[in-house]
């Protein structure tokens, strides 16, 4: 019988072993690798996003506060044209022309599923937004004419609850207890000023004019809130783009339409014929009159850039909350520049406006923390599996 030879199994070093391809794929899933790459890329882009948000906030608050003060200065020093006050709120759009050359629309791939809206659709949107903006500017000019600047600014805070309502209907904005608290508190803040009209009336601001100014300002606030919500809806459903070029176009063309409407209003109302006499009678001089109008137009445009940028990057409600943050600043500045009275009711109204703003900011903080926690849990689940 042949003797069987025992088989000896030689140990193979771990470093020389060939790992099957399937085993490698199990250790490092491709989806997990791609997810990590996306997260790393997004974290790098966050710095640029926060930088843009900060710039937009500065433009909105700074432009809005300075333009409101100059608008009050125009009326206090002899200006009386409501259509001119409305015209300067949108006539600064020519300063946007250089931006068309620096920020061009990115070229889209032919395979992109997004379809660009037709030119006719865009022109109709620009026309509708321009007409709405012209009417809103005229209402604001009446409110600014018949109200002290501090009261005008604080009543304008009512645009926040209006915006919350329109955002709920048009933009599917989620309502929480903190957001509802913000809406109610800011509404009470504006209502306090309405019942305090007797202490505000004087020879310059009679009771009848105060009522007209209050109604016009509230109507302008609601129209402005509708305008913001419709803009957000347009960015998401129609243009489907949040590029800076799209933001500039959505500001330039409606402002052009609104300015043309105001020019027609100047001629139809007959105010165009008295502008020369108004300039000559301006207490600070003709040069000051022209510079007041020019800088008011420029500052309003800067504020609009900030507002449009925040709508495209975040939401219309967030943009409105930031604008509301600037409103309590104006009455404080008006005390120094126009010697407005800051009585107890107005102080309480200011505190409530700040309280409403902080409630909304805290809700944003909670939402952001929850979102980060959810993403972290999803990454951990992907890694373990």
Automatic annotation (TrEMBL):
Cell inner membrane is among the record's keywords: no
Keywords: Membrane, Transmembrane, Transmembrane helix, Transport
Region (Disordered): 1-35
Membrane topology: Multi-pass membrane protein
Bias kind Acidic residues: ranges: 21-33
Family: Belongs to the purine permeases (TC 2.A.7.14) family.
Protein name (record): Probable purine permease
Native species: Solanum pennellii
Gene: LOC107028320
